[in-house]
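Ticket #4471: complex job returned nothing on first submit. Input attached below:
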Amino acid sequence: MTPFEYLKQNESKRFQDLFSLLRFPTVSAKSEHKEDIIACAEWLKLHLGELGFKATLYPTKGHPIVYAEYIVDKKLPTVLYYGHYDVQPPEPLDLWKTPPFEPQIKDGYILARGACDDKGQFFAQIKGLEAVIKTSGTLPVNVKFLIEGEEESHSANLPVFIKKNKKLLRAEVVVVSDTAQFNKELPAVTFGLRGIAFVEVFVYGPNKDLHSGGFGGAVGNPINILCTMVGKLHDKDGKIAIPGFYKDCKPISRWVKNQLKKLPYNETNFKKAIGIPALHGEKGYTTYEKLTSRPTCDANGITGGYQGEGGKTIIPAMASCKITMRLVPDMNPHDICDKIEKYLMKIAPKTVRVKVNKHGGARAVEVPVDGPWLEAAGRAIKAGFGKEPVFIKEGGSIPIAVEFKETLGIDTLFIGFGQNDDNIHSPNERFRVVDFENGCKTAAVLPFELARVDK
Amino acid sequence: MTPFEYLKQNESKRFQDLFSLLRFPTVSAKSEHKEDIIACAEWLKLHLGELGFKATLYPTKGHPIVYAEYIVDKKLPTVLYYGHYDVQPPEPLDLWKTPPFEPQIKDGYILARGACDDKGQFFAQIKGLEAVIKTSGTLPVNVKFLIEGEEESHSANLPVFIKKNKKLLRAEVVVVSDTAQFNKELPAVTFGLRGIAFVEVFVYGPNKDLHSGGFGGAVGNPINILCTMVGKLHDKDGKIAIPGFYKDCKPISRWVKNQLKKLPYNETNFKKAIGIPALHGEKGYTTYEKLTSRPTCDANGITGGYQGEGGKTIIPAMASCKITMRLVPDMNPHDICDKIEKYLMKIAPKTVRVKVNKHGGARAVEVPVDGPWLEAAGRAIKAGFGKEPVFIKEGGSIPIAVEFKETLGIDTLFIGFGQNDDNIHSPNERFRVVDFENGCKTAAVLPFELARVDK
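Support reply: We reran it on our side without changes. The output follows.
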């Protein structure tokens, strides 16, 4: 039996296993889900153990890391697979058509929070390897799995783990399936991702909510002031107005510009799919460049005062805003956090107190496109999807790839099985059944292709 | 027995009755409290009926109006008492030291939502009149009560009721106890109040929350855009930047300036009491002038995107903000709503859709200070509080006073028993026991003083 035949024969069990994994509400941002997260990690350990992996849970200050290895022969190349079993918060819940943690298949899609980001994707890798193990009794390479539970909470504890376990994690190449294909017709290998920096801004005014009649006019209003400050993050041309923000921002190279230009990118379809009246952003760049190769500064949430039905005539005691910035090479997230803090403190009026919580982030990442690993990945994708893949950049961030490069010296292959309209981080997250299937197939071929590289 | 003796003898029953009234969670802004509001109106009808009033509930499109009258003799002057039995939402609940709808007395204060605004205050008027009725068997004037349930929701239905019931409401003067004294040492009659205008701004971006990595840079972010727009409501000098905003704004007269200057107003104490690092506002005016005699534009609530623990890297589908503006004579609330809408639509970028819900409001009100009614009110306050009152302006709004003047042609006496630190519209609303007691006494003297005016 070939691995592809095995996948076909075990289809029903494979989906059952995936659904078990998707049912855990592993929202890492919320402490109320601590127990669910531990249960999911235990389940993964057990599952990998059953396939012949030596699996262990490593506790962290936050959520546990699942580590598993299948060592065939020290002379063979070693591949480190990375994934994350935590998910984004499902809110707003009322916009979900099916409950986020009750997975189901409908109209060719697997529906659930985490279906695509990232449970469904790293699980395709596991299931592909399972097909190889079950049909040949071994693997053509040594395999290590590192599956964390804090990716959606900025991987707070993983870098420390990597630094402490360099030997354990030693490998020739990292494989990450946590990105999207170019579109439904074009599978892809991603050669670049943006970095990220995250801050929260708090504006404190009076010591309690005040009546806006009795106090309005002489008391600095935290909402008005926060708005003025956030409003000053961009200039009229859509450029970010934080002094020094673009200092380390590498211009888009001619090679990348050409590469991106080759892709059949359709701005009208993009605009239509998300229902916006006009495209937005920095002058002088194409939409695809703006989405993948230029930095951003987006408020992700804002809150202050009375938000219920009707009105409440108050000057609130405080207001706050969550802001993330996407970074490109060679921007440093800590430097960017310092710069936005300095700027916000400078433009804040003396009538309020302002605090900026700096959560750091990760640098952008770029993989050399002409390396043998990328070519091997391309061959595996062709075998799995039946089509030659394109080489693309993505606007999202996989911070841990920077750690792999800087701490372990290993390049990462971004072999994404998702689609851009899979609603990751949004209500109704989904993953195409056909992408999951072709992902499993790709994963069953990939170790053979990677084994060839070192020969 | 004198009315004052009656009040003393019935102290315990009087507080029991007040507590019954305060226990109804009559939050008019929230539809979930509809039944509580009806129950409270029924309770008031019953209570006034027991005192000899002919009491009726008038249904409206919103919450019912309690109307009650005690007609002694058509030749006597008629006094129309206005109050409201609805209250502000109690949120944020976690900041209350005692449950908002479980009234109690502690350290000389009655603690409950509505204790001061306005249940405790209009109830003092009822209890003062009760003392007169119970000790003399009648009243020296005809009395009408109009107690509405929508004041904290902008009295949406009261103006229609007043227009339809001009004859029913005919009176020589209106009495409203819904303001504050100057301070704990100085009782006051209020001769001016600001008006109000209320709008809600909605900014709609993509058709769902989007991943800020995959979409950031080419999609207008509703939070960033809303902030920029709200930030442009004021200029650098604290002036409101809406074109034409100040067009009908009457300058503060020399007489009012002098009147306000006479009051022992302490800016340092004001700043300290509310815990702000510096005073804020329009240049060229004293704090007391800014609080009472200049218009404002305050955001009362803002909401958008992810507001929970941790982060969520999204571009939200929408963001919104509630804004109220305090008005001074002769600003028109509908005109002001139109102007802010026009301005916001003009400064909104084409990358989003913007909607402004205009809720209207009320003009400011000023009562002539040298009239005989104000003098009579002053004498009643002196009898109740044992001190000569001062004449003051307040920054809050009692929109219905404008209706009384414009529709019925009647001036309003603002006889407030509260204090500026009674936390109205804030957590831990309270009302001094001594202010409630002196309020009841004032109310027992007031009808006699008002009866003298017409003689």
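The domain at 3-193+364-454 of chain B is CATH 3.40.630.10 (Aminopeptidase). Closing as resolved unless it happens again.
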